[in-house]
C-alpha cells in the first residue's frame, strides 16, 4: 500500500466510520470536517448539524472552551511541541447532559508539512471516573472511620501465612509503616507469652466452632513495653467452610486497662478504708453504747442517791404538817416541804432531760381529753396564780382528745402555766385557748401579760439552763422546763412554739395530733388526809435497810390505825418474817445488803407460804427502765421515793 492510498478520502472515511470510538476530524481552521457515527451517538447531533462548526462552540461548556481550543488545537497547529496530545474534558450532548471524554490527537500534514487535519479519537470515561470517584469516597470514608475509631486493621491468610497490618496497627506498637515484614510469625512473636495460648485458642475456636473472635492481649511495643489491645475478627471461608482468610481490627485499650487497674487499687484502698472506718465506727458505737450504759447507770445511781434523802425530807415534812404545831413552826415545815417539792421537781427534770438526750425516754401516747388534762394542770398551778393575784381565763372548752402520754402532757401543761404565772405581772391575766389547725393537729395557747421576751434573747429560749436574765431576779427556776417540754412534745409527735412582744407579754403553744378515740377523763388530784377505814388490824411487812426510811414509813402508817408494821433490814430476815407472820402486804426496797430486792421477790414467789402475798416495790430507783424491770419481775406495784403519804396509803389499801 503506497502513501497516496493511505491518504485517500474514501479509505480514511471507511476507517473513521468503522472505529467503535468517537472520532472527530478538524480542518486547519479547527472546524469539524468529519464526525463519525460513534460521535453522533454520543452527542446526539448528526454530522450535518455540526459540519463546518467549531467543536468548542457546540460541545464544551463556556469555561472550558478557550482552554481546549488553545491547548488542544491552536498549539498543535502553531507549536506542536507544547500541544497536548492527550487531554480530558467534558462534552455536552444535545440533551444537555455532560460526558467525560478522554481525547488522543493525531495530525495529518500536506506535502509542505503544514497541518491539514487533526484527528481526535475519544474514549468515554464517564462511568470509569464515577467508579473511581465512588471508590475514592469509599476509601475516604473508611479512612475517616478508622481514624475516628483509632483502630488498627489486619488481614491474614492462614494458608500462606501472609498478613497485612495497617499503618495504625503498626503505630499502636510503635513501628513505622515500612517496618515489620508481612508474615504472621512476626505478629505472634509480639504477643505477650502469658497471652499467647489464649489467643491461639480463640482463633482455633473461631475457625473450628465458629465462636466469635474477641480477645484481649498484650502486644510488645517497639520500646519493650506492652500495650493492651482488644482484637476482633471474622474469618472468610471457602465453599467447604474452611477459613481461607481472616480480617479484623485491634483497639488500643491500654489506658482503659490502666484505669481499671487504678480503679481496682482504689476499690481495694476504699475497701480497706471502709473496713477501717467500720472498725472505727464499731468501736465508736461500742464506746457510745458503753458511755450510754455508764450514763444510764450514773443516772440510776444519781436518781437513787438523790431520792433517798429527799424521801426523808419530804416524808417527815408531810408528817409534821399533821402535827399540832404553832403557826410559825407549821409555816417553817411548809416552807421545807415546798422547797423539797421544788428540789424534787428539779431532780426529776434533770433526769428527764438526761434520759431524752441518751435516748432512754419512753412516752406512751394514748387518747387524752385535753380539757380534763388542762383542768388537772390548772388545779396544780392555781396556788401559784393566787399568790400573784393572777386572773385565769380558760377559753379552751373543747371536748377533743389528743394523742399524748398523759403524765408527760400534764407535765408540759404545768410547766407552761407555771411559767405564765411566774413571769407575769401581779394582778395580770393568763388566757388559755384552743384552735383546730385543720391539719389533724390541735393547738393549745397559753398567753400571759408579762414583760415579754427581748427579740435578741428569743433564740436561746428552748436551750437547757437558759433563763434569759431571770436568774438575776427573785423568780425561781432552772431554765430546764421549756427545753424539756419541747423535747417531750416532739417525742409525742407534736411541736412547740411561741411569739412574744416586749412590754405586752408572750404566747406559748403546743400542737398535738387529734384523735377520734375516746379518752379516759383524768380525776382531779386530791390531797387526802389520813384514812381510817375501821377495818380490823392488818400486817404490813417493810424490808428496808435505811433506818430513816423505816422510821418514815412507820410514822406514815401510824396514821392508819388498822395497819401494823413489822420490818426487816435485810432480805434473809425479811423472808423469815414473811413466812412467820404471813403479812397482808409486803413493801420491798431494791438495794439491800446480801440478797437484793429481786432475789427476795423471787424467793417469796417460789415459796408456797408467801407466793400469794402482794409485794410492792418502794425504791429510789425511779428510771423508767427500773420501773419496767420491777413490774416484769413480778412486783404488783412500783412506788418511787420520795413517796407521798396519801399515795402510799391508797396503794396499800388497794391490795388489802
Q: What can you see in these coordinates?
A:
This protein is an alpha+beta fold and 656 residues long. 45% of the residues lie in helices and 23% in strands. The protein has four domains: 3-130, Beta-Lactamase (2-Layer Sandwich), CATH 3.30.450; 150-252, Beta-Lactamase, CATH 3.30.450; 363-515, 2-Layer Sandwich (Heat Shock Protein 90), CATH 3.30.565.10; 538-654, Rossmann fold (3-Layer(aba) Sandwich), CATH 3.40.50. The strands form four sheets. Strands 11, 12, 13, 14, 15, 16 and 17 form a seven-stranded mixed β-sheet that branches. A five-stranded antiparallel β-sheet has the order 2-1-5-4-3, sandwiched between helices. 26% of the residues are buried.
**Tally of domains:** 4
Tally of helical runs: 20
Tell me what portion of residues adopts beta-strand conformation: 15-25%
CATH architecture of the largest domain: 2-Layer Sandwich
Our measurement of the CA-to-CA distance between the termini, rounded to an integer number of angstroms, reads 161 Å
Helix content: 40-55%
The CATH homologous superfamily of the largest domain is called Histidine kinase-like ATPase, C-terminal domain
Q: pLDDT under 50 segments (min length 5)?
A: 1-6, 522-533
Major sheet description:
7 strands, mixed
Radius of gyration: 57 Å
Structural class, from secondary structure content?
alpha+beta
Per CATH, the class of the largest domain reads Alpha Beta
Number of strands: 22
Mean pLDDT: 84
Overall form: elongated
CATH names the topology of the largest domain as Heat Shock Protein 90
Amino acid at each position: 500500500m503506497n502513501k497516496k492510498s493511505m491518504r485517500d478520502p474514501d479509505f480514511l472515511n471507511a476507517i473513521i466510520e468503522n472505529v467503535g470510538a468517537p472520532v472527530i476530524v478538524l480542518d486547519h481552521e479547527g472546524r469539524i470536517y468529519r464526525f463519525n457515527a460513534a460521535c453522533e451517538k454520543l452527542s446526539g447531533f448528526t454530522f450535518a448539524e455540526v459540519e463546518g462548526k467549531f467543536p468548542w462552540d457546540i460541545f464544551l461548556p463556556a469555561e472550558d472552551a478557550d482552554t481546549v481550543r488553545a491547548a488542544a488545537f491552536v498549539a498543535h497547529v502553531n507549536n506542536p511541541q507544547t500541544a497536548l496530545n492527550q487531554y480530558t474534558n467534558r462534552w455536552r450532548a444535545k440533551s444537555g447532559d455532560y460526558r467525560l471524554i478522554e481525547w488522543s490527537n493525531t495530525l495529518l500534514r500536506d506535502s509542505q508539512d503544514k497541518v491539514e487535519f487533526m484527528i481526535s479519537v475519544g474514549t468515554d470515561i464517564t462511568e470509569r471516573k464515577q467508579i473511581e470517584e465512588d471508590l475514592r469516597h469509599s476509601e475516604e470514608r473508611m479512612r475517616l472511620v478508622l481514624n475516628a475509631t483509632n483502630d488498627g486493621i489486619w488481614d491474614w491468610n492462614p494458608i500462606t501465612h501472609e498478613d497485612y497490618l495497617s499503618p495504625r496497627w503498626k503505630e499502636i506498637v510503635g513501628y513505622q509503616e515500612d517496618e515489620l515484614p508481612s508474615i504472621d510469625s512476626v505478629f505472634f512473636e509480639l504477643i505477650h507469652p502469658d497471652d499467647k495460648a489464649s489467643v491461639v485458642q480463640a482463633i482455633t475456636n473461631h475457625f473450628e466452632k465458629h465462636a466469635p473472635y474477641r480477645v484481649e492481649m498484650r502486644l510488645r511495643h517497639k520500646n519493650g513495653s506492652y500495650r493492651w489491645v482488644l482484637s476482633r475478627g471474622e474469618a472468610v471461608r471457602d465453599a467447604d467452610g474452611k477459613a481461607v482468610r481472616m480480617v479484623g481490627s485491634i483497639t488500643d485499650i491500654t489506658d482503659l486497662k490502666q484505669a481499671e487497674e487504678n480503679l481496682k487499687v482504689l476499690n481495694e484502698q476504699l475497701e480497706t478504708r471502709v473496713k477501717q472506718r467500720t472498725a472505727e465506727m464499731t468501736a465508736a458505737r461500742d464506746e457510745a453504747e458503753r458511755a450510754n450504759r455508764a450514763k444510764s447507770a450514773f443516772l440510776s445511781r444519781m436518781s437513787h442517791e438523790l431520792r433517798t434523802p429527799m424521801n426523808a425530807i419530804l416524808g417527815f415534812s408531810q408528817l409534821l404538817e399533821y402535827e399540832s404545831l404553832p403557826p410559825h413552826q407549821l409555816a417553817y415545815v411548809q416552807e421545807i416541804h415546798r422547797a423539797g417539792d421544788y428540789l424534787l421537781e428539779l431532780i426529776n427534770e434533770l433526769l428527764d432531760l438526761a434520759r431524752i438526750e441518751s435516748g432512754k425516754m419512753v412516752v406512751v401516747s394514748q387518747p387524752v381529753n385535753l380539757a380534763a388534762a388542762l383542768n388537772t394542770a390548772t388545779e396544780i398551778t392555781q396556788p401559784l396564780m393566787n399568790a400573784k393575784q393572777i386572773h385565769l381565763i380558760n377559753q379552751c372548752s373543747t371536748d377533743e382528745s389528743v394523742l399524748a402520754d398523759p403524765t408527760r402532757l400534764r407535765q408540759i401543761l404545768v410547766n407552761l402555766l407555771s411559767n405564765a404565772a411566774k413571769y407575769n405581772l401581779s394582778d395580770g391575766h393568763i388566757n388559755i385557748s384552743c384552735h383546730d389547725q385543720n391539719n389533724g393537729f390541735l393547738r393549745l395557747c397559753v398567753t400571759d401579760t408579762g414583760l415579754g421576751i427581748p427579740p435578741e434573747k428569743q433564740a436561746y429560749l428552748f436551750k437547757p439552763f437558759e433563763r434569759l436574765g431571770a436568774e438575776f431576779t427573785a423568780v425561781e427556776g432552772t431554765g430546764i422546763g421549756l427545753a424539756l417540754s419541747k423535747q417531750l412534745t416532739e417525742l409525742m409527735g407534736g411541736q412547740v412554739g411561741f411569739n412574744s412582744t416586749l412590754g405586752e407579754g408572750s404566747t406559748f403553744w403546743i400542737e398535738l395530733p387529734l384523735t377520734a378515740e375516746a379518752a379516759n377523763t383524768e380525776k382531779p388530784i386530791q390531797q387526802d388526809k389520813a384514812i381510817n377505814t375501821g377495818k380490823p388490824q392488818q400486817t404490813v411487812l417493810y424490808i428496808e435497810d435505811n433506818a430513816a426510811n423505816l422510821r418514815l414509813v412507820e410514822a406514815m402508817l401510824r396514821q392508819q390505825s388498822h395497819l401494823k408494821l413489822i420490818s426487816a433490814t435485810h432480805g434473809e430476815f425479811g423472808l423469815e418474817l414473811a413466812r412467820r407472820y404471813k403479812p397482808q402486804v409486803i413493801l420491798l426496797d431494791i438495794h439491800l445488803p446480801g440478797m437484793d430486792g429481786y432475789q427476795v421477790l423471787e424467793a417469796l414467789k417460789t415459796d408456797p407460804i408467801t407466793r400469794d402475798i402482794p409485794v410492792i416495790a418502794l425504791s429510789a430507783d425511779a428510771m423508767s427502765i427500773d420501773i419496767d424491770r420491777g413490774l416484769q419481775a413480778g412486783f404488783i406495784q412500783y412506788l418511787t421515793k420520795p413517796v407521798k403519804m396519801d399515795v402510799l396509803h391508797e396503794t396499800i389499801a388497794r391490795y388489802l
